[in-house]
Design brief:
The chain is about 35% helix and about 25% strand. The protein is built from 3 helices and 3 strands, in the order βααββα. The two termini are about 20 Å apart.
């Protein structure tokens, strides 16, 4: 059983573009996961995104059901 989604999978499920999803996770306005700074290069932070599937159930459909409806 899969526990985490990558950014592309979450974008497909939520029907939003990657920039919006990442921005929402970084700023904390999108409460489906978190963005973690992994390193800073040239004063620009690099992030890793943590998006648990269980947090997406607030949208009324499970990720597995979403995949089945394709």
């Amino acid at each position: 059983m899969k526990l985490l989604l990558n950014v592309e999978e979450a974008c497909s499920f939520l029907q939003m573009n990657e920039r919006t999803l990442k921005s929402g996770l970084i700023s904390g306005t999108l409460d489906i996961g978190s963005a973690i700074i992994t390193k800073v290069i040239n004063n620009k932070p690099r992030y890793k995104y943590h998006i648990p599937i269980k947090e997406l159930k607030i949208y009324g459909i499970s990720y597995e059901d979403f995949l089945e409806t394709g």
